[in-house]
Amino acid sequence: MSDTTEQTGKIADIVLEKGYRPSSDETYMSPKQRAFFYQLLLQWQEQLRGDAGKTVSVMTEEKALFADPSDRATLETDRNFELRTRDRERKLISKINRTLLIVEANEYGYCEECGVEIGLGRLEARPVTDQCISCKTNEERSEKTSSGSIDDAIE
Fold it and tell me: Cys-Cys with 20: which of 16, 30, 71, 151 at CB 3.0–4.6 Å?
């Protein structure tokens, strides 16, 4: 890795040694760490797009006629489930794209709410996360509380 690469911020150009994993011994969100997460996000995106392509291929090939309505209903249920899964993955690909831009802008790894370091372990587990565990926990509590009060009001 050259100083030029670090200065220009071309994270995509950084080549990591085989088996590299970010360590807390390094400077947090150094170009090397950002390159690791950038590559991780690209691999995840590629996998999701490959899965989507397989789904389209299978759905366009399946033109079976079923004498039994139960078999047809099962096929339709399976297709609906597959389409819902692909829709969630499409949204995830959008989030991956957004996160890739954040990595390139050297803003990755910090909580969007409070600005603290999110942490390497959390980012490895969920590379698209944009909140530290404290802020995410508070957000989920707030959502639970507000949805609970709406449910209470309905009853």
Answer: 16
